[in-house]
Specification:
Layout lengths: L1 H20 L7 H16 L4 H5 L3 H6 L8 E5 L7 H4 L7 E5 L7 H12 L5 E7 L3 H7 L15 H19 L4 H20 L1 H8 L4 E7 L6 E3 L3
Parallel strand pairs: 1-2, 1-3, 3-4
Antiparallel strand pairs: 4-5
C-alpha cells in the first residue's frame, strides 16, 4: 500500500513538472485567463496549494533549461499584490512586469513583447488596484481648482507624468470619486497605449494568438475583477 501511495505521489509530481515546463505553450488565451481567475479564487479562500506545489525543487530543476509562461501580468510594484500570490501561481507560470502605477514605457513594452514572441504567452493582463499610491500621488499633483497635473521634478515626477492623462481625464468626468475613476482610467489608457505602441502586441491580438484584458485588484477582499472591454 505504501509503495502504491509513493508511486501515485511521484506521478503527480511528474505531472506538475510537465505542466509547468512544457505544456504551458499550448494554453489558449481563454484557458490562461480562466487559470488566473481560478487561482485568484483559491487565494481569496486562503488556499495557495498550487503556489506551494509549483515552487518545489523538482519544478525549479525542470525550468533550468527554459520557461513557457502562459500569461503576462503588467501590474503595480505595490507590495500588497504580488501576482504569483494573488493568482496562486508557482514558478514558470506567469511572466510579471511590475512598475509603480502599472504604466508602460519602452522597457515594459520590450518585456511584454519578449514574453509573447519568445516565450509563447497567450494572455496579457493589465492590472490596476484600489488605493494605488502612484495614482494617488498624481491626483495630489493637480493644480488647485483645475484639472491640470503639475508633475514634480525627478524620477518620481516621470511616473506622475505618465499617469497624468488618466487623472486629468477623470477629473473632468468623475470629480466626485476621482481616485477610483483615475485608477480605472489609467488601466484603460495603458492598455490602449500598449496596442498603439507595439505592433507585435497588436498583431498577436488580431491573429488571436494573444488576448489582452484589463482588471482591478481590491486590496480589501483580494478579488481580481475584470473590467469592461
Amino acid at each position: 500500500m505504501k509503495r502504491v501511495r509513493s508511486l501515485v505521489v511521484h506521478m503527480l509530481a511528474v505531472v506538475m513538472v510537465l505542466a509547468v515546463a512544457g505544456v504551458a505553450a499550448a494554453v489558449t488565451p481563454d484557458e490562461a485567463l480562466q487559470m488566473l481567475m481560478d487561482g485568484n479564487k483559491k487565494f481569496t479562500e486562503g488556499n495557495l496549494a498550487n503556489l506551494t506545489a509549483n515552487s518545489s525543487q523538482a519544478v525549479r530543476q525542470s525550468l533550468v533549461a527554459g520557461q513557457k509562461p502562459y500569461a503576462i501580468v503588467l501590474d503595480c510594484s505595490d507590495s500588497r499584490l504580488a501576482p504569483e500570490i494573488i493568482f496562486d501561481k508557482g514558478l514558470g507560470e506567469i511572466f510579471v512586469v511590475r512598475v509603480a502605477g502599472n504604466i508602460v514605457a519602452p522597457h515594459q513594452l520590450g518585456s511584454i513583447e519578449y514574453a509573447i514572441e519568445h516565450l509563447g504567452a497567450s494572455l496579457l493582463m493589465v492590472l490596476g488596484h484600489s488605493k494605488c499610491g502612484a495614482v494617488s500621488a498624481t491626483v495630489g499633483s493637480l493644480t488647485p481648482g483645475t484639472c491640470d497635473v503639475h508633475a514634480p521634478e525627478g524620477n518620481i515626477g516621470s511616473l506622475v507624468e505618465a499617469i497624468a492623462p488618466a487623472v486629468e481625464r477623470s477629473c473632468e468626468k468623475h470629480p466626485a470619486d476621482l481616485l477610483a475613476a483615475s485608477i480605472d482610467e489609467n488601466v484603460n489608457l495603458v492598455a490602449k497605449k500598449i496596442e498603439i505602441k507595439s505592433p507585435i502586441v497588436k498583431e498577436a491580438i488580431e491573429t488571436r494568438k494573444l488576448k489582452m484584458v484589463k482588471a482591478r485588484y481590491d486590496l480589501e477582499d483580494g478579488v481580481v475583477k475584470l473590467m469592461a472591454e
